[in-house]
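Need residues for this backbone.
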């Protein structure tokens, strides 16, 4: 997770395991990104089903434009 990125701000934690994006299970990182990108343009909510310890939780994470996020977080 990126510091102060959308996942962290939505309450995701290190060691959370993403099980699904919406109703679509994900098995690989490529599946995960394809499912996120298929939700629409930057700014849409991305519903994630995660496993945290022994609990399954639903979390909604707003998507962002990666290039804009990373260029804004550069320090010189």
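Answer:
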């Amino acid at each position: 997770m990126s510091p102060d990125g959308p996942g962290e701000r939505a309450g995701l934690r290190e060691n959370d395991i993403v099980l699904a994006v919406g109703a679509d299970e994900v098995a690989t990182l490529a599946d995960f990104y394809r499912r996120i990108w298929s939700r629409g343009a930057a700014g849409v909510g991305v519903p994630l089903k995660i496993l945290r310890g022994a609990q399954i939780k639903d979390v909604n994470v707003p998507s962002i434009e990666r290039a804009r996020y990373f260029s804004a977080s550069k320090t010189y």
